[in-house]
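Render this sequence as a predicted structure.
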Amino acid sequence: MPKDKPDVDSTRRTLLKTGAAAAAVAAAGRAFAQDGQAPAGTGFYERGDVRIRYNVTGAGYPLLLIAGGGLNSVFANFFNGRTPFDVIGEFGDEYRCISMDLRNAYSGQSTGPLEVDRPWDSHTDDQLGLMDHLGIDEFMVMGFCIGGPFIWNLLERAPARVRAAVDAQPVGFDPDMPDYFYEGNMSGWGQELLALRSDITLEMVDAFVTRMYRTDADFVFTVTRDFVRNCQTPILVLPDDTPAHPFEPAMESAMLAPNAQVSLFPWKQPEDRIPLAVRHIRSFLREHRPWTA
């Protein structure tokens, strides 16, 4: 049966009320950006010589959040306005939002060895290790930028644990700019890390970044098209169209994955489109969240 036409004014009032409530949830976190103090729920977990700084905000079904920023991905990005929308404010009142500093992000406090032979997997070890540390078996995940390849790696390595995924403005391989990520990380993240860590050499950084972004570079970096074609996990893709977030691999992944959805595009510009994308994310997560959550 056709649905009645929505009451636009009522919908707008509801959105405003929801936004106000969400803003209250995130208020303490925003102070982090102002005074440099970590928000409540921040802690560390250790596994051998790896030490990961993380934050847990909100309550409800577990939602792992992977911040953008490439190899300098840190959870502060969810509290200081460096995401397309206020992720914690929008979802912290409904989900247990779990985020972390990527191992060896120069702006963060997570440290550990530079595993040059398995760069993607070493970070996925940290993500799954954090969930184990928190006693969480099953969860959903939302990732931005570098979070895209991490999401696909999580789906390959732990398919039974990830109930659904949101892949926002993901990085991917662009054959027209094959060295974009290698060169950017060597001149940016790599140089910053070398200034902080006397135990890490330029040769190690080169090997690490080469393995990530040059060795077998294709598609979404971490999995093959055949894997995506056979992946049954529900996934929502929000593509971008920039050198760092190329449109083609994001859309190709959405077209290949049998249980994928894709947002409107563009979804960040003009800015009044962002609430539509957020509503799509919210309905997608609710659809795939356990009813008992």
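Summary. The beta strands are 42-47, 50-57, 61-66, 95-100, 139-144, 162-168, 235-238, 260-262. Confidence is low (pLDDT under 50) at residues 1-35.
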